[in-house]
Structures are given as C-alpha cells and as structure tokens.
Amino acid sequence: MPTLVLLRHGQSQWNLEDRFTGWVDVDLSAAGEAEAKQSGQLIAAAGLELDRCFASVLTRAIRTADLALAEAGQLWIPMDKHWRLNERHYGGLTGLNKAETAARHGAEQVHAWRRSYDIPPPPLPPGSPYDLARDRRYAGVPVPATETLKSTLERVQPYWDERIVPALRAGERLLIAAHGNSLRAIVKLLFDVSDQAIPGVEIPTGNPLLIELDPTLRPARARYLDDARAQVLPAAA
Q: Residue 89 gets which letter from DSSP?
C-alpha cells in the first residue's frame, strides 16, 4: 500500500512575529526546531520507514525535514527540493504584521485574502525588498507577484503529477515537508475537496499526517501521528 507523510514546517521566526512570510526564506524559531524534532520522534514511534523526501526550496521546510529525519534515524534518504512546493506567495502582504494589516484594511478583507480559495492579495510592488528576481534558486522561474490557494494548487499539481505520483506508483514511501498552503493543495488533490470546503481545512505545524493510499492513489486511511493536536480530515470523495 503506497504511503505518504505530509509534514508542515514548524514555527518560523516570522510566524513568531505574526508576519506574512510566503516565499521569503525565513528560518525556524527554536520552537519550530523542537516541533521538527518531535515530528521525527513521532515518525520513529510509528515505525515508519521512508524511502524519499520531497521539500520546497525554503529553509524552514528543508530544515524541518532534516531535523525530523535525523530524529527518526533516516537522514540518509534522498531529498528532492523544488520551488513548486513553496508556500503561497502573499504578494504585497509579504513582511507585514497580520494584526496591523487587519487593523488597516479591516479583518474581513484580510480574512478574504488569507483564507479564500481564489481572491489574491495585492501584488508585490516594484522595488520591494522581497523581490526575488536576483535569487538564483529562481533563475528561469516565473516568480508570481501574488498567489491564491487556487494558483498555488495550479503550480503544485505539475510537480505532483510528474515527480511524486510516479514515486508512489513505484512503491516508495514518501515524506513531503512543505507549507500550509502547498500541503492544502495536495490534500485538495488527494481527497477531492471542493473549492468551497478547502479554505476550512487546516494543516497543523509539526504534526505528521500519515496517508495510506489504495492502488489508485486514493486515500484508504489517514491520521495525524499526534492525536492531541490532530485536525479534522476531509472525507475522501
């Protein structure tokens, strides 16, 4: 039975400061490092043996994978990194404090930018300090100026179809270390969650989601390894 573990990175420095992060390469906080290590302990306690890891190209996801796999005694497995697994790009909200942004624009508007399926935040303005045009990891990449969950899914899906699905079909047991929105995109694909329901799906940080798939790669069983911090999972369609 194909096995997939989804792991959202632990708390980052900007999570701690309540700032919109997106594609900015912010490292884990001390609490985030502890969450990653605890994730590895949960993987080990569940007896999970993994064959390959996929991660975004952002440090907080890569270090979460490294810390978790080291704790699980499986740091040696191959890791494939790709920008398509990056967090959603928050456009002009990038770097802003979330509470201050809500006070300025109204909580309802900010909620729509953050949680709707297809309403984008304002684009990143020209000359922003968060412009990634000179970041060599994105050479030749169409870096967005803003994204919705919908557009995040649209750039995650080709990587899912071309790289992850073949590995699952080959029987590899996979870990994907990524972000709240890129992982929600994968959950939407796997569980066939509706556009209306996906904004309500939460992925907790530092809590591995174990999904056992049937031969058609539909979820057969799914559970969070830390029951105390589990979120409600969508029912497979």
A: P
Residues 6+ apart with CB under 8 A from 228: none
- Angle CA 211–31–56, to nearest 5: 50
Residue among 33, 87, 89, 179 flagged as catalytic: 87
Tokens of 151: 């557009």
Asked about 154 being catalytic, the answer comes back as: no
Active-site entry in 9, 35, 71, 89: 9
pLDDT of residue 111: 87
Is 17 catalytic? The answer is no
pTM for this model (two decimals): 0.96
Strands 3-8 and 79-81, by their bridges, are unpaired
In order of their start, the domains of the chain are 3-229 (3.40.50.1240)
pLDDT digits (tens, 9 = 90+) for 167-194: 999 999 999 999 999 999 999 999 999 9
In the block, residue with structure tokens 């002009």: 92
